[in-house]
Design a protein that fits this description.
Chain lengths: ~120, ~120
DNA sequence: GCGTATACCTTGTCAGACATAGTATGTCAG
DNA sequence: CTGACATACTATGTCTGACAAGGTATACGC
């Protein structure tokens, strides 16, 4: 993907779960949202996104439903399951700690560390 | 690894390069430093660290030299090559943009976004 | 001497990122 | 009304990276 080589491995699932937190979305919409909302950083090809979705679904984090939109087009809508919501919380926490660790090493700025660890400046 | 499951994929090489930025270190020392300096978040087993080092060496980002320490123990010291220094700069930048993207989605706190993107609060 | 810490190496497995390719349908310019 | 283009999902196969498990070898404390 354009996902900054392999730096972002593991970021994909979290980003998808986070987007679905607000409400259901379909695959193509997710791809577009990831692209736009992250200025391309989290953009991923369809061959990355769809298998990722099937994987999350197989593990019970999201569930899908086929519907026909007003446009007449068939779309597969995905939404978070309670299990997925839990995983999102865990992953978000893990990401914050990872950002904190990278800050501690100097890879990210110190502000990241404070924000991630909830420490007052 | 303890590296927060696979969330941190890609973080390993950057962390190692960053540690080597200050000066040479040997494998065991790197493992220990990663563990301590990140409060365990970036800790990785030897079976992850050593292959990672061989990989970075094969790609010319680091170079190694066997030496005998005062303790009498043989150690393989690694140091950054100019190429590795360049890659560290690129990767650091990519990480900041990734952190910025995750912030934009709400996975990381907003302070991360400001710091990562260099935007005034 | 014998356990523990230090220090490095190897093999094999599995999951994830992706390129490539394919199917099918709605929209719109000409 | 037709062909190009955008939308939308699926399938296959390759490559890399994370890791568990299992070695080897040496220094040091007791």
């Amino acid at each position: 993907m354009r996902l900054e080589s392999d730096l972002m491995r593991g970021a994909g699932p979290v980003a998808v779960l986070k987007l679905l937190e607000r409400g259901e979305m379909y695959g193509y919409e997710l791809a577009d949202a990831l692209e736009r909302r992250s200025q391309g950083v989290l953009a991923m090809g369809q061959s990355t996104l769809y298998p990722l979705l099937y994987n999350l679904e197989a593990k019970g984090y999201i569930e899908a439903e086929w519907r026909v939109a007003d446009s007449g087009r068939r779309r597969k809508y995905y939404r978070l399951t309670p299990k997925g919501r839990k995983r999102l919380a865990t992953d978000t926490d893990a990401w914050k700690r990872l950002a904190g660790a990278m800050s501690a090493l100097g890879v990210l700025g110190p502000a990241d560390a404070r924000a991630s660890l909830g420490v007052a400046p």
